[in-house]
# Entry
Amino acid sequence: MLVYIVKRMLMTLVVLLLVTIFLSLLVQIVPGDPARTLLGPRATPELIQKVRASMDLDKPAYVQVGNFLWKVVHLDLGNDVFTGVPISRLISSALPHTLILAITSLALAVLVGIPLGVYSATHPDSWLDRLLALISISFTTIPSYVAGLFLLLIFAVKLHALPAMGLGNEGDTLDYLRHLTLPAIALAITWIGYLARLVRTSLLEVLNETYVRVARAGGLSERLVRYKYALKNALIPTVAVLGVGLGSLMGGAVFEEIIFSRPGMGTLIFNAIKARNYPMVRSGVLIVAFLFIFANFLADLAYTYLDPRIQINKRQD
Amino acid sequence: MQYVEKPTNRIGQLIDRLPILSDVLRQPLGALGFAIVFIFALTVIFAPVIAPYDFARQDIPNRLQGPSEQYWLGTDYLGRDLFSRLVYGSRIALGTAIPSVAIALSVGIFLGLIAGYVGGVLDNLIVVVMDSLQAFPSIMLSLAILALLGPSLTNVIIVIGLTWMPNYARVIRAQTLSAREKAYVEAERSLGATDRSILISHILPNVIAPALLLAAMDLPWVITFEAGLSFMGMGVRPPTPSWGVILSEGFNNIFQSQWPILWAGATLAVTTLGFTLFGEALRDVLDPRISGTRGL
# Structure
């Protein structure tokens, strides 16, 4: 077990390293000069040269990669070219809002999706199960930005029931939550549908296993069998995808942040792209990718802990 | 003697000849999916016939109108017919999705075959690169590359192709690994066949089916991905009527008219639902072993 965890940790570090190298090499691979695009067509050659030097673009590729890695390891992402503010400060003020949005959405998905899946699996082929099947597959397929726009249209623009923009008044928790509601629901919808389907499939599978039938034959109550024995095992795959879920919700949050004008990593990266500020884009994407990798790593650990069989399976792959 | 009546109508005969399709159509959700995909295909083919107006024709006095006899679904902020724009948008959706998936598929097959067949250092290298590409949330990887390339239809196709490619490389690699050990490959090798001919004429035909199925199931995701990028202004540029562009223009005028968002959103949602229902029914028929759900 320990060997596996250490191995997995080393793999994660290698991927982190590669992701960082990839992002710093992207400038080399993709045609164009980020300094020139950043400054626009009227910039003087001296200014372009200065900005190129500040972005390390005048040095050979391996020096660029080395410098970037060195800075990332020291948690120094440099200063923003436009404002001079340290990029790390901009990110640390944006990141919590994205994390709150992603975690709230994931919690919503768990609280709604899992009970729906359990109901479907315990009432297979009932009319409600069929209806839920259609609803959950529609939820998984509706793009999160369409869900966001529809919610915005209905609850903010038409009904004026919930606020449409921003984070709310500073220090007012209730107001913050009111502003969080619509984006969190919009972001959660896909995962509500996905978890409902996943739990239904895995619970149905477990309910047909021998040990469940033995427990039933032994006279244990259906309630005990279903919720204590079967559900516990059926939720293992669900736990495994939650880490992936958190990561992908952090990526998907960009749409909800734009639609609901919420500050966060998504809007930070989006505005940086519009301003052609590549160093900022690179740092933002790097941080989101780090968190994504970290969430996947945690999910993997949780999975190994819950289901020790996984190690043997992995070795066979 | 019992006389069993054969279906005599022509559709029945046609369905009989296509056993896979008839199995799909027997499932209610599969049939619904097929119907949506079929209508979508007809729309793509007959767009100029179906659309009552040119998608760029402006009618400023009638801007941001609701549905009417003249404009069935209403008009956008330049008075352009929403129905015609959505109809032509189907061509953009498919015209982006197919080349993107084709790029992902062909590069993925190439890398997957090499990694699985050659093995060793090259295999490890390819796997590590695929791992690090997949370590990004796909939207972030696309945004990082588009930030450098700049938004355009071609760039979106390239970026989506690159973002989706590792999935295919993985599937093909895993299939190749197991096909490599099969007796018929051993036999070919002992008869003196070259690696190239083994790969192309024996391994490829045996490993390609799951990747093709994956490609079919990926089409709706790619369509929504392109529309999402275009919605952010990072994909297809206006005035091209991508569904994402229509949504984005609707978003900018959300307080004046809800119709552009409503129709474009519904079109996207129904299209992806149709493709997914059809794809899942198809998968269940073709390969009952891999049932269940797929993530994002």
